What does this fold into?
Amino acid sequence: MAAACTAQIGSSQGPAGTGQAGGANGSAGGSTLGQGAGGGPATGTGGNAAAGNGSATSGPLDPGRVTIRRLNRAEYDNTVRDLTGTAQTPGATTFPDDAPQLGFDNNGDLQTLSPVQFTLYQQAAESIAAEVMTVGSKERAAIVTCDLTTGMTCAQTLITNFGLNAFRRPLTTAEVTNYTTLMTTAAGEGATSDEQFRTVLEAMLQSPNFLFRPEFDADVTSLTPHVLSPYETASRLSYMVYRSMPDATLFAAAAAGQLVTSAQVQTQLTRMLAAPNGVFGPTFVSMWLGTSAVATQSFDATLFPEFNANLANSMNLEVTNFFNEFVQKNEPVSDLLTANFSYIDSNLASLYQIPAPAGTGLVRTTLTTPQRAGMLTMAGVLSVTSYPARTSVVKRGAWVLTQLMCATVPAPPVGVLPIADSVTTGTQAQILAAHRTDPSCSVCHNSMDNIGLAMENYDAVGAWRTTENGIAIEASGEFTGAIAEPTLPAGQNGPTFVGGVALAKAVAADPRFVSCMAQNALSYAIGRTLQLPGTDTPYLAQIATAPKTGSLGVQDVLMNVVASDTFRMRRGEAP
It folds into this structure.
């Protein structure tokens, strides 16, 4: 039984302090995305929350506003799983890809909704609702907790309870009435009580209040910042850490009017990062560094016979397990590039030519070889910056600059031909030297090449090598050029290094690395592109500031992110 998608993101004012937003109208009609009021009192001061403590600095700052975000494919699948118990994954199997921004797939500015995609939402809603309402199923038992045949009292209870979870906030009285009216209409057409409620489930799963994550401004044209409602903050936290709807503890905190202060938000983040369903570490790092792409890469089987799907999976897991330890233990951000341990299994041990650890799966292993340290020398990173038949000095150098230092690398000049994928004579160092003789190329290549060359002892899949095409590799480099060393006087170069481990130490010592990691974490957490330089600059500076004692840890960065006004607040937009 198909249910008409009738919801709009409403405009009714929610009760002060609860963050309840106006919402769906259950009458027949089309889907409307409107800007609404609601979300509790506008109590924000406009001051910036100081890193980690929530105190305000003098003078108003601009926390910005986030474009309404649609659930991406992973978020949709996780949400319907937690909402209904279904094992269906329509997001992964049928929905179109989500457009990434800087590697992240949750940027509201880039999201679209085509008629085809909405048809897929309708089909998924019908299929999931049918599963939930299957008599005797565990899904039905969890949701239908009273006897639907007894009348509308039971229906109203179920609508209220399911709606709270589906819309991530309490339903308004009008919304409950609209959905009970939808059941009454279905009953008039001969539907059974189960079929009537199934129609409600279908409608809710197609509602913009479910498919999107709306946040409201009491005055949509006011530029005065205001604190998000507790329910809106709960959703920001939940989709940051779980990639899914809030859990029971978050809902309870929102219902109690909490999640308003920095300390309250940080307390929840601490709990959530340790939760078994927390996926921030693996999700964030794979998109930040682009290492999830290794699963879809292919390499020349003759040149790299060791590469296969099992090794690719191990490569990805090494990066995610390593980073997740930094999240859980709050290890220093700079150690991401210098740590002398990693997560190794027999696949990686064979590639790295080190003893395989005891046991099965990836095992935390202390590295004793001088060839490996930190993320930069991991095969997952090295392989995604390579071509199928060879390494790429340029790609690796550009990757270090853009992903680890947040530098902007200009596009190559028009008409410059790329280097062939297969290099059969000489080394890339010799070939790239020709690029730097052209003044139009040297500006960028002086920076990129002198970084990428230090990684040439690692082949396309990350194995160690000492020669290329029979010629000894010279893996020396330096920070040079306006991109790599923007603060140095013209003609003066930065540190020199030989090899990937030494390069990693140089990057770790550069203040841009910590700032870049913080920049990516903030962008991912709030789901928008940052204004840098611009209104987000002061927030980022505080988020990346080390505590008075000790180094800045990865979890410190995340705590500073959620304590900042740009995470906890928003504003309207001038007409």
